[in-house]
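Severity: low
Component: inverse-folding endpoint
Summary: output formatting inconsistent between runs
Steps to reproduce: submit the following structure tokens with default settings.
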């Protein structure tokens, strides 16, 4: 076999291997959930509201996290992205002070402010799970 043929053969083997590897991992879509499904509880959103009042309202009005601002800055991301961004940057005068749970509660409150449904189970602060929850736009805001 010429060197060129060997390389082609090797590449084919590697491609085959990659395909076989991929086949074992379920497609991402199967695990992805959406905030449209009701991923937080009412009680959690209430806690988030209290935390927002305590930690955020000195500098922010809730209107900064709804409507167009929400659609531009939040939709299309995972809940985890937003929680981590929040935790790393806010409150501006003391980033990192908030517990992950508080950030998740505030996220639940923001979802409620934007009219997303609540559900039976709390949004957990486990970041692995949060990365699977997508912030989809509400159907009524998808239209131009
Ligand atoms: C001391 C004032 C202050 C406090 C307290 C504060 N923020 Fe902010 N926040 C700001 C300012 C100023 C900006 C815009 C400048 C910037 O992005 O750095 C901002 C930006 C943001 C953004 C947009 C950042 C981005 O990357 O999209 C979010 C979301 C946010 N704040 C959420 C919160 C939440 C939630 C709290 C409460 C936990 C909070 N902030 C507390 C001052 C504050």
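Observed output (run 2 of 3):
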């Amino acid at each position: 076999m010429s060197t060129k043929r060997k390389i082609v053969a090797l590449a084919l083997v590697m491609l085959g291997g990659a395909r076989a590897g991929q086949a074992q991992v379920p497609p991402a879509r199967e695990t992805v959930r959406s905030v449209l499904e009701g991923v937080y509880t009412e009680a959690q959103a209430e806690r988030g509201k209290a935390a927002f009042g305590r930690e955020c309202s000195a500098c922010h009005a809730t209107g900064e996290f709804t409507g167009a601002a929400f659609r531009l800055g939040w939709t299309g991301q995972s809940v985890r992205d937003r929680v981590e961004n929040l935790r790393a940057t806010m409150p501006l005068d003391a980033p990192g002070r908030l517990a992950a749970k508080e950030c998740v509660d505030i996220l639940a409150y923001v979802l409620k402010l934007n009219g997303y449904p609540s559900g039976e189970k709390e949004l957990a602060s486990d970041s692995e799970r949060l990365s699977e929850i997508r912030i989809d736009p509400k159907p009524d805001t998808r239209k131009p």
